[in-house]
Amino acid sequence: MSGQDAATATTTVNTTVTAMAAPGAEASEQQVPRGIGASVPAADTRAKTEGTFPYAADLWAEGLLWAAVLRSPHAHARILSIDTTAAAEMPGVRAVVTHADVPGATTHGRRIADRPVFAHDVVRHHGEPIAAVAADHPDTARLAAAAIAVEYELLDPVTDPEQSFGAPALHPDGNLIRHIPLRYGDPEATGDVVVEGLYRIGRQDPAPIGAEAGLAVPRPDGGVELYTASTDPHTDRDLAAACFGLDPDRVRVVVTGVPGATADREDAAFQLPLGLLALRTGCPVKLVATREESFLGHTHRHPTLLRYRHHADAEGRLVKVEAQILMDGGAYADSSSESLAAAVAFACGPYVVPHAFVEGWVVRTNNPPSGHVRGEGAMQVCAAYEGQMDKLAAALGIDGAELRMRNVLATGDLLPTGQTVTCPAPVAELLRAVRDFELPALPKDAPEDEWLLPGGPEGAGEPGAVRRGVGYGVGMVHMLGAEGTDEVSTATVKVVGGAATVICAAVDTGQGFATLARQIVQEVLGVDEVAMAPVDTDQPPAGPAAHGRHTWVSGGAVERAAKMVRTQLLQPMAHKLGMSTELLQIQDGRITSYDGAFSMSVAEAMAGKELWATAQCRPHPTEPLDADGQGDAFVGLAFCAIRAVVDVDIELGSVRVVELAVAQDVGRILNPRQLEARIEAGVTQGVGAALTENLRTVSGLIRHPDLTGYALPTALDAPVVRIVKLVEERDVVAPFGAKAASAVPVVTTPAAVASAVRAATGRPVNRLPIRPSAAVGTPNS
């Protein structure tokens, strides 16, 4: 492919992506709500409903080739030889690449670069990439990948994280990724009542509904452009550039439409082979992963083993918490260190605990790699400490909600890490709201109402076998990065002729940032027409789309840039009027003076002007946890309380979630409809973790890597969600005072559902997802 052809292909793709940004701007011209606090429709609504949203799987370029990746069928094996001859000689095959063809760094990783681009001496997990093929047809590419002959020497896989400590090293860095000991208070302290528990949390997959896909286009300067649904484009660019042996400015990542993400999308295992093949062939190369490849390739929630001992006094007040937390990081480190830090720091939950001693480990195994999934670390410990609170309540004969009320955190209290809770922490108010909310009516026994029973129509053996349970969960998450992460985002707001454009590399993964950015500019500048520029790495970095950080950091950058433009607009008027800009306000599309003597429409004031400003937002710094697990590691915290009502068939073990009452600490409601949708989505994901979602493995091999074997909640499984209270107590250090919305209901829901099943059955329920056998019979059966 000539340089001119490559440039043409690049232009074609760019035009396609740019065109997709227009529908959001067109929608804003209609008579719709506007500004902060309004239910502004999602920016991409029109594009998605009209079928013009730019999913990576739909992209095309002239001279396109198709890629396929050969993946290991084994969890642990030594590679003796790789023979690509048969694949390379197949008609239509343009290139075959292995580890020997990687020109730069042969390993990668967003946090620790320990993951090979292609395995070459040893395979460490099922599905690890071995080689990649580019061909003129997708079927040819897949057949060629299957024709690559790899000779393996099978090795015994290490699949039990407890055995990882004594097993031979699976990686040059060893098997231990991180160990965090947390010591807080007096180790000799004891309580009047002591309860113990052992809990296991399964491997939840992010299961992105949209296909994972990408397109790589070579550039005339010898570089490459990657079109993917990246959630962190600048990190992906730097990682790819290192592996390609190129300077970062010769690699450009263009973010195509992200079809929702509850974790890191477009794992580098998809992106890197694409770029290598494009550079090798000089042609655009596209890869659309199958569902099986998606399950094999991307990271999952950390399976976790938790041992707890809670001490309380006779009144039910916590005295000491002891815990051991062992997380399975899988074959490579990825974000395991950060996940463990959250698990250890929040091991006691949103409760006041005078003495805490927690040991946390995350280790390598030959299981699928674990990484960032919404609420990582916090979800696992929430299920365990709430199980302990239920045990304490039973041992003391105290109502579960009342026991929790006696121990909840408040602003000014200390976390076991020694950090003072300076943000709003209305935990008691949240718990009280769900406790006092009216309970749903009991189901009738009439045949026409059998669909209300667990298992759906004909699912319950007998209505008389159904028991109803009510349980509680109280959870917390941190916002933004932790332990010294430098959180910063940059945004530019440009206004030309009364139409505004926001340029920010913050990726909207479904959390609604594009909509929020429009609301901010509408609020500050009074303009109706606001568009988001497509995201690529030619823009300044905005960081990853995780922990609600774009609402805080990127939203803060957009607000500051918009206020700078506002000053540029108002200063000449204020000068003519002999007053400061603070005495002019923009409201309802008009600029007026404090005394009402001056009034002008924003459209008239903007006519013929081109104004722009760039600004950054950087929250206050944090610090790593020290050798005793102490330190101010988190910028902010968010809290949630959920009351779950479930019906359990104690003969079949089937569980129906009747209702989830949610009260959440949101700081400030920026978009009511969007906030409600985020909470409902988080709750539904939590129901999946509680009841159905578990990516099962046998000897490290993933069983049924498809949406038949992996049971996601459907619309029929989604419970009734009652948002009973949203506490708007603004965090003064956060832009707009808002808090992250979607992670904390994911964290809290599984604990609440498990608590309700315990109440219905009297059984311990110490494993997620809840197996039918855990809900069958009585405690003595």
Automatic annotation (TrEMBL):
Sequence ranges assigned to domain Aldehyde oxidase/xanthine dehydrogenase a/b hammerhead in this UniProt record: 50-156
Disordered, as annotated region: 23-42
InterPro entries associated with the record: Ald_Oxase/Xan_DH_a/b (IPR000674), Ald_Oxase/Xan_DH_a/b_sf (IPR036856), Ald_Oxase/xanthine_DH-like (IPR016208), AldOxase/xan_DH_MoCoBD1 (IPR008274), AldOxase/xan_DH_MoCoBD2 (IPR046867), AldOxase/xan_DH_Mopterin-bd_sf (IPR037165)
Coiled coil: none
The protein's name: Oxidoreductase
